[in-house]
Amino acid sequence: MTGKLMDLKAAAALVPSGATISFGGFTTQRHPMAFLRELIRLGRRDLYLFGHSPGGDWDLLIGAGCVKRVELAYEADEAFNTVGPRWRKAVERGEIEWEDYSNFSMVARFTAGAMGIPFMPIRSLLGSDLIRQEALSSEQRAADPRTSPKKIHLMDSPFNPKDRVVLVPAIHTEFAVLHVQKATDQGTVRIEGQTFADVQQALCADVVIVTAEEIVADDVLRREPERNPIPPLAIHHVCHVPYGAHPYAVFNYYDYDPLHLKTYHESAKDDASYRRYLDTYVYGVKDQAGYLEAIGGPARFESLKANPDFGYRPDLKRRV
Amino acid sequence: MATSRYTLTELMAVVAAREIIDGEVVFAGTGLPMLGVMLAQRTHAPRCTIIFEAGTVASRLAHLPMSVGDVRVMRGAATAAGLMEVFSYVLQAGRVDVGFLSGAQVDRFGNINSTSIGADPRRPSVRFSGSGGACDIACLARRTIIIAKHEKRRFPDKVDYVTSPGWLSGGTSRSASGLVRGGPSSVVTTMGVIRFRPETKEPYLAGYHPGLTPQAIAEATGFPLDVAGAAETPAPSDEELRILREDVDPEKIFLR
């Protein structure tokens, strides 16, 4: 393979157990799901996840027992199921360590990391229990450099003592993994639609792995550099993974898959059926090609393919 | 009421949509707010600007989104970027008129819980999704509309966890916390509309839905509610109901 191109399995193998990592996307769109399934098959454990609004990407990793600690604002597939089922169980059973923030504060934290500064002041969180309550104890924080020693810090502006701000600590991760529409062997990346916090997550990570629906010639993306939001010098590895976000949507490529999401959420209700889900769609297949067969093959992808006028599937039946 | 032309969820969506004034900038959270804002845009508020936190500004929704990061919110949007752009340059900078939120619990002063149930959030009996952008919207929009199904357990005197600050403990407690603006203007429920007194921030029942009595609403609420001045909510028009059912949510995504 040329340039930064890498096989998906080889890229996933770079991530060791215990790594700090963030994944791109937002609740129902552009999560690197194929990459996550490889991590689960590799048996990685004790991952530290950082995110704003993940959905089933985190739910799958948490459910498969790969995660030790998370810092987040939200975990759900939104209207498909108002709370991630395995996230909920893991918290209620005491099987996971976590800390709650809001979306703005998490994204401000990624931005601070991306900018190379230690924290970011924001005007949010004031008056809320996100400030008063801490899910991680100071002992847990002090014992592990992967977590900030302090959740937040309240400060009056040095320029105006009546102006109160909340400082949130920068995030640095060892890895960020994004799923995008187009990328090149040189690490040039095109994101279509919302960028979420993918740019900031990439720029605060030591190693950035991009999985892409399409690999295109570098010259093609360089014709419109203003549409390529991440400097290629920050991108280390690029993998070609069509349908890499299934069952979630990729703007202009395919819609979310309500049938598969229903299967997931129903399976997640109890441990035995969840184990069968993992056996069928993760452990029982050897790679992304096997997964695509397991979910119904080309007929299924065709049914989700985006209408180019909309960037999604206007006739998709969502309550199935 | 027995043979009503509409369900309580439909009524709630219509009444919540009416809270939006044409031309306003509306930052909508996930769930029922998406129903209300899309209905408002298609009825009396066609010039409202709809913002979703995942990065879009001024969507012209053709299909009801199921998430604030849905590919459907790209339809007709004027700009698309990321969370940092809308949270910092639009919301924090003071450009949002209305935050539109829902939640699992809403208390006497309009504080919202979408984090967990239980006295100790480190060992909750029920865990929810978490804030998402709700806390930020409640902190930084000029006012907040809250929409929630009216059940006594969902309307306690004090929420188990203040995910999204309302009037906190009433009076001047919100501004004393350092928040620079905002606060809930109304809580629209399946039974009525609650508003807050200007000085004390104590809640009062401003409207009760057709077929209900103010007393029944007070009994279904876990905090003291002054119902003396409540007026009956105008019923949804046939046109509002038609647009809600046929154009906004024909798949019954939220109108279940």
Structure, described:
- The complex is a heterodimer of chains A (320) and B (256).
- Chain A is α/β, with parallel strands linked by helices and 320 residues long.
- Chain A has one domain (8-304): Glutaconate Coenzyme A-transferase.
- Chain A is 32% helix and 20% strand.
- Chain A has helices spanning 8-12, 33-41, 56-63, 85-92, 103-115, 129-132, 138-142, 198-203, 218-222, 258-267, 271-283, 288-294, 297-304; strands at 20-23, 47-50, 67-72, 97-100, 119-122, 153-157, 160-169, 173-183, 189-190, 205-215, 237-240.
- In chain A, strands 1, 2, 3, 4, 8, 9, 10 and 11 form an eight-stranded mixed β-sheet that branches. Chain A has a three-stranded antiparallel β-sheet with strand order 5-7-6.
- Chain A starts with 7 loop residues before the first helix and ends in a 16-residue tail after the last helix.
- The mean pLDDT of chain A is 98.
- Chain B is an alpha/beta fold.
- Chain B has one domain: Glutaconate Coenzyme A-transferase, CATH 3.40.1080.10.
- Chain B has seven helices and 14 strands.
- Chain B has helices at residues 8-18, 32-42, 83-92, 134-140, 173-176, 214-219, 238-248; strands spanning 25-28, 49-52, 56-57, 79-80, 98-101, 105-106, 112-113, 116-117, 126-127, 143-148, 184-189, 192-196, 203-208, 231-232.
- In chain B, the strands form three sheets. A ten-stranded mixed β-sheet of chain B has the order 4-3-2-1-5-10-11-12-13-14, with helices on both faces. In chain B, strands 6-7 form a two-stranded antiparallel sheet. Chain B has a two-stranded antiparallel sheet with strand order 8-9.
- Chain B starts with 7 loop residues before the first helix and ends in an 8-residue tail after the last helix.
- At the A-B interface, helix 4, helix 5, helix 6 and helix 8 of A face helix 3, strand 9 and helix 4 of B.
